[in-house]
Structure formats: C-alpha cells, structure tokens
Amino acid sequence: MLAALFPLISATIPLQGELYVLGKLVLLIIIPCGLLLLVRRSVKIDFRKSAARWWAPAIVIVLWVIVSQVAPWNSTFDIGGLDPALVVTAAVATALTAGVGEELFYRRWLQTRLEAGLGAWSGIVIGSLAFALMHLGSHGTGEFFLDVARVIVVQGSFGLFLGIMWWRYRNLFANVVVHVIVNGWAVAAALLAA
Questions:
Q1: How distant, in Å, are the alpha carbons of 75, 86, 170 from that of 146?
Q2: Rounded Cα–Cα distance for residues 34 and 37 (Å)
C-alpha cells in the first residue's frame, strides 16, 4: 500500500527538494519499519550462508560499474555555482534515503513479501515496477505517459538488476553499495574534479 501511496502523493503534492526526502523518509522507512516491528518474523528468508554471498556480488558490482558508469554517454554533474558543503549534504541524504531506505523498502521488505506470496519472478517484477513508479516525483517532467515510460525503462531496469541481486544473494549491503554508487557516481566525480 505504501509503495502505491508514495507515487500518488508525489503526483498530487509536489514533493520537491527537502519535502521529497522527508516524504521518502516517512512513507518508505519510518512507517514500514514501525509496521514491520508489529509483524516481526512474518516472512522468513532462507539463503545459503556462504562466502559466495560476498565475493559473487562484489564481482557483479565491479563489472556493472565498469560497464554502466564509465560509459562515455553518461551525463556529468556540474557543481559550478553550488556550495560544495550543500552538495555533500545532499549526497549523504540521498545515500541514506535512496541507497539504504529504498533498498530496505523495495528489496528487503516489499520484494521479499511479494516473493513469498507470488513467487520469485513476480516479486522481482512487481517490486521493480513499484520502485520505478516511485521515481515519478523526482524524475517527472509533467508529461505523465512519457514520464511513466521513462521511469519504467530507466529506474525499472535498475530495479530489476537490484531485485535479481537481492533474490540471488540476499545481501542487502551489496544492494546498498550498488545503489549508492549509481546515485553518487556523477556527484563524486564532480567533487573530485573541482
């Protein structure tokens, strides 16, 4: 319900800047965390506790970063005219709400429950679509159908990647690392170049 509520609220109440971060914090982290405390252990995740849970995702992460982030068609982030302290503060807030918060909500909490009820691939696909649609508030241009198509292609494909990693390795730390790299790569490059 919260996965559907956040994009609706973002579409009706323009959540920009701090309001967007606050909305994600409340609707995708604080409320679900409180609800899940009430139904602890309602879904059990069985996974192999082997060293491969750590080195295999590390290889996937390194290869993915090389292929996706250093490509010449990637956009750059221009920090000209911005206070570097503000950029770092915004990057840390994004790392916490997006990197940690979205991975907790969309993979650990939502996808796990969807997998338990609907099967692995249904859980991955529905979780990825919900993840994509959540980005309408931050990546929308006002052209609804084009925006929906855009977030499904870009954020939805990233959500599939993260969903498959979660399903395969059940390593939340690895998912958070990938998410933080994706959100912070251009900013880190711009800060280092400045």
A1: 20, 31, 33
A2: 5
Evaluate whether residue 49 is within a structural domain. Answer: no
In this structure, the number of other CB atoms found within 10 A of the CB of residue 39 comes to 9
Look at residue 75 and tell me if it is in a domain: yes
User: Does residue 138 fall inside a structural domain?
Assistant: yes
d(CA 164, CA 177) in angstroms, rounded, equals: 15
Which run of H or of E encompasses 161? helix 144-169
H or E segment to which residue 54 belongs: helix 52-69
Range of the structural domain that residue 157 is part of: 2-39+57-193
State pLDDT tens for residues 107-162: 998 999 999 999 999 999 999 999 998 888 777 677 888 888 988 988 899 999 99
Distance between CA 36 and CA 89 in Å, rounded? 29
Q: CA-to-CA distance for 103 and 165, rounded, in angstroms?
A: 11
Cβ-proximal residues to 21 (8 Å cutoff; 6+ apart), any chain? 93, 94, 97
pTM score, two decimals?
0.78
Beta strand residue intervals within 102-148, DSSP E: none
Q: How far apart (Å, rounded) are the C-alpha atoms in residues 62 and 50? A: 20
Residue 48 located in a structural domain: no
Looking at the structure of the chain, the number of domains it has is 1
